[in-house]
Design brief:
The chain is 25% helix and 27% strand. The chain is an alpha+beta fold and 232 residues long. The protein has two domains: 137 residues, Alpha-Beta Complex (Nucleoside Triphosphate Pyrophosphohydrolase), CATH 3.90.79.10; 81 residues, Arc Repressor Mutant, subunit A, CATH 1.10.10.10. β1 and β2 form a beta hairpin. The longest helix has 16 residues. The termini are far apart.
């Protein structure tokens, strides 16, 4: 017997905010150019409607792969967005996810209903479709809160990095400069990094000491935001 609902049911979508680090200091976000109405020709976050036979993590991974060719190792949910007028097609609730990747590891390739896919500088974004600017702002705020209290930066930095690289990433995420001496003192005090005993190779200046995130610490193994590189 088919059950008949008394109330109208909204549609359900997923959206993905994929952040990437470019050239050790520039924070980028992955966007697609919409190839269909509404907002044809406008840039937006990758995403789409959830199928009746899939759960949310599967839906966001499928949409990301279909529209951009990008498959992050880890995604986590940042919130649900359900303003009544957020989508001109009708009553649509979206569950947003975020991921962290290295830009050099992921070259976008548009497919499905995306006319184009590209990385954009976080500080030079086009006008976004739907309420995606709001979603992106919230995702960046969450990343900014987390980057100072967990090893989440491991998903963006090289496996071995200098403190200068880490500071530049931190500044790109939070959107403000840090005092070099204070940052280094704070960074060296974190239990989830360690010095490798090695220095940079082939640089024209004095080679800086290299660091890495520590696998298996309380901070890494219990933190869902940490990528597989740290967990190995």
């Amino acid at each position: 017997m088919t059950y008949s609902y008394r109330y109208p049911r909204p549609s359900l979508t997923v959206d993905a905010v994929v952040f990437g680090l470019h050239a050790d200091s520039d924070l980028r976000v992955l966007l697609i150019e919409r190839g269909e109405t509404p907002y044809r020709g406008r840039w937006a976050l990758p995403g789409g409607f959830v199928r009746m036979d899939e759960d949310l993590p599967a839906a966001v991974r499928r949409e990301l792969l279909e529209e951009t060719g990008v498959a992050p190792s880890a995604l986590w949910q940042i919130g649900a967005f359900g303003a009544p007028e957020r989508d001109p097609r009708g009553r649509v609730v979206s569950v947003a996810w975020t991921a962290l990747v290295r830009v050099s590891d992921h070259t976008p390739e548009a497919n499905s209903d995306a006319a184009a896919a590209a990385w954009f500088d976080i500080n030079q974004l086009p006008d976004l479709a739907f309420d995606h600017e709001h979603i992106l702002t919230l995702a960046r705020d969450r990343l900014s809160d987390e980057i100072s209290r967990s090893p989440i930066a491991a998903a963006l930095l090289p496996n071995e990095f200098t403190l200068t690289q880490w500071q530049r990433l931190h500044e790109a995420v939070v959107g403000e400069r840090s005092d070099k001496r204070n940052f280094r003192k704070w960074a060296k005090g974190q239990r989830w990094i360690e010095a490798t005993g090695r220095r940079q190779q082939g640089v024209p200046h004095r080679a800086a000491e290299l660091y890495r995130f520590v696998a298996g610490t309380e901070h890494t193994k219990n933190n869902p935001l940490v990528s597989r590189e740290v967990e190995q």
